[in-house]
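so my prof wants the structure for this chain in the tokens format not the other one, which i didnt know existed until like an hour ago. anyway here's the sequence
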Amino acid sequence: MAKQTVLNIKGEKVKDVTLSKEVFGVEPNNVVLYDAITLAQNSLRQGTHAVKNRSEVSGGGRKPWRQKGTGRARQGSIRAPQWYHGGVVFGPQTNANHKKRQNRKERRLALKSALTYKANNKELIVLDNFDLETNKTKEALSILKSLEATKNVLLVVNELNDNIILATRNIDYVTLLEASEINVLDIVSADKMIVTLDALNTIEEVLK
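here's what i got, hopefully its the right format
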């Protein structure tokens, strides 16, 4: 089992904690992880994209010129795809199905794989707590700077409170989640994953 250093909000070492091998030490499954990322991204699609085909654009009710004798290429409609304002061929439609499914076992394995990569790549930071005295953004920025986490940060706490929400909501590179809300897409998108000790215990308890 791998050991992880626990830091305080000043970036100082407090103690070491042993990460669960069943959660942070699995053999990553890249196929399942890729499917989980695709599933998450597809769920964000609005599905409102659409274009008009040649039967939906206006105009083109008659043949623009006779079939033979003009010296020009034969044409059947001014709304054929090769014409200006013509219909689009094989364009996106709203009835496209982008849904993907994963069973519970695959979802858990994908989450464990993502967490294992974070631990192996030294992108996991464990804090004893993230208790803020005020709700000022300046205080949150100071803590992140001391932890050397200044880009694409995923902050996971066991329970949200007003100070944490207000202090981090204006920091555009911080994603704030409760331990019960962690997901594969947010984990792999983050350069640093900061987890409080309580949140770490919750994650390990659920995923074991």
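also thought this was worth mentioning. The two ends are 14 Å apart (CA to CA).
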